[in-house]
């Protein structure tokens, strides 16, 4: 049996499938229903939950926290990932005149403290900078990370949507080792194979998290030639592997890669999450992996 967990630091491991909370308000769950859903995720091996301060117009963390409050023992059995740095235009912040990024010491620390309060937890397991910014003071970020670590509010740090040079630039100013980079990876989106990120993850032993691993659902309703090619190939390989759904094939493609990709599954349906979890055990051949790659690129490898 393949392990359902990944060590991303000496002190912390995460589940190989991460559950994403971005669409949490759309599921219309009561606090008790959400608590039951979280417990069901834990039972099937999904213990890592991905948030961001801005999700649901700044509401998702609070909704999740209300559920955790009903049974405080649950928070001891999960890992919380959350992000900061984006300032949205929102009715909750009427003083803002433009969407922008803020990586000042004050904003990073305040964001972490707000997330802790909303989630009703004592420590954030992994705290990420949500996007790279054109105005980015590395020393300010380092100062904020030091403060959050020394105060016991954050265990590990990482980034999201960073390129290798952006990751390295930040790492060069930190005492903490960045443990992950959350980026978009799917058979449809090979951007991070092309920009050097996947090679960088392998070189540095960094386990990436993949957001939108199913390409935002576009492979279930293909609209362009690339998507049609991929769906045809995914179905063919699904038949070879005796798999009923192409999402199983997609997850297996991601999970089999040696960079240790952890897909983020953003579904409110437990059966969809189970499909991702079961995909950990699928043995995909190297030729099958490359058939999907070739279907995506539209040409054979050189």
Model description:
The protein has 302 residues and is α/β, with parallel strands linked by helices. It has a domain of 175 residues: TIM Barrel (Alpha-Beta Barrel). It is built from twelve helices and twelve strands. The strands form three sheets. It has an eight-stranded parallel β-barrel, surrounded by four helices. Strand 3, helix 1 and strand 4 form a beta-alpha-beta unit. Helix 9 runs antiparallel to helix 12. The two termini are 35 Å apart.
List the helices and strands and how they pair.
Layout: E1 5-7, E2 13-15, E3 18-20, H1 31-43, E4 48-50, H2 55-58, H3 60-69, E5 79-84, E6 86-87, E7 100-101, H4 105-119, E8 124-129, H5 138-150, E9 154-160, H6 164-171, E10 181-184, H7 191-194, H8 197-204, E11 209-211, H9 225-240, H10 246-255, E12 262-265, H11 270-278, H12 286-297
Parallel strand pairs: 3-4, 3-12, 4-5, 5-8, 8-9, 9-10, 10-11, 11-12
Antiparallel strand pairs: 1-2, 6-7
Helix pairs in contact: 1-3, 3-4, 4-5, 9-10, 9-12
